[in-house]
Amino acid sequence: MMEVNLRLMQTSDYEELLKLVIVTWDYRSWVQPELVYPMAEFFLSDLLQRSDHIVIATVDGTLAGVCAGDIIDLTKLQSFSRRQKLKALGEILQQTEKDSIFEKYIQTLALDEVLLRESKHEFPASLNLLIVKEEYQGLGIGGKLYCDFCQYLKNNDVHSFYLYTDDSSDYRFYEHQKMEKLAQKDFYWKPKQRAERETYFIYGKYI
Q1: Which residues contact 201 (CB under 8 A, 6 or more apart)?
Q2: How many alpha carbons lie under 13 Å from residue 125 in its C-beta half-sphere?
Q3: pTM of the model
Q4: CB atoms near residue 22 (< 10 Å)
Q5: How much of the chain exceeds pLDDT 70, in percent?
Q6: What is the 3-state secondary structure (H, E, C) of the chain?
Q7: What is the C-alpha to C-alpha distance for residues 101 and 30, in angstroms, rounded to an integer?
Q8: Cβ–Cβ < 8 Å for 31, 39
Q9: In this structure, are residues 60 and 141 in contact, taking their beta carbons and an 8 Å threshold?
Q10: Which of its termini does the chain have fewer beta carbons within 10 Å around, N or C?
């Protein structure tokens, strides 16, 4: 019988997590080869930097999944600084690499803030990342990681949170967890081409 354990992330987990991000979002299918690792690393390091609770799931000692989230009061200055960084980066890319894949990616991060405003909710916490390796899906690992994050919030007297996701992810997992979809927006990686459309969502939950 397989043994599933949860533990806090260590720096030695980083490279394995980076590979997991690349596979999960299939970076090699939409990012030019020389940018696969830099873009995946920007995404992962950005999420980890603004998370104060990062938990690894292991199966028989092998990394099988990750969950990262934060209590916003603990990361308020970091969140403000991140928004300013993304704004500045977007302005730079508009001048230097207009319509590049990286510029489009930065636009999707800015879209998250739009969704939060349109949700007309304020939340004290956010779930920033939840991934389970494909070969370990169906074992309840995602549920264990999700419940661990909820318990972390309760232990800190926090009783609601939100998350962003999109239709290339398993967003129905969050609906199964009784999360409420609060807003959604379409994003076009190429102007108004339906085949290049992706839908982004914001979900909220009171616990």
Answers
A1: 115, 164, 165, 166, 167, 171, 181, 183, 184
A2: 24
A3: 0.87
A4: 19
A5: 93
A6: CCCEEEEECCHHHHHHHHHHHHHHCCHHHCCCHHHHHHHHHHHHHHHHHCCCEEEEEEECCEEEEEEEEEEHHHCHHHHHHHHHHHHHHHHHHHHHCCCCHHHHHHHHHHHHHHHHHHHCCCCCEEEEEEEECHHHCCCCHHHHHHHHHHHHHHHCCCCEEEEEEECCCCCHHHHHCCCEEEEEEEEECCCCCHHHEEEEEEEEEEC
A7: 9
A8: yes
A9: no
A10: N
User: 164 and 140 in contact (C-beta within 8 Å)?
Assistant: no
Q: What is the pLDDT along the chain (207 residues), one digit of tens a residue?
A: 789 999 999 999 999 999 999 999 999 998 889 889 998 998 999 899 889 999 999 999 999 999 999 998 766 777 777 777 777 776 776 776 777 777 887 788 788 888 998 999 989 999 999 999 999 999 999 999 999 999 999 999 999 999 999 998 889 999 999 999 999 999 887 776 566 788 999 999 999
**Single-letter residue type at 27:** Y
Token duo for residue 95: 């001048």
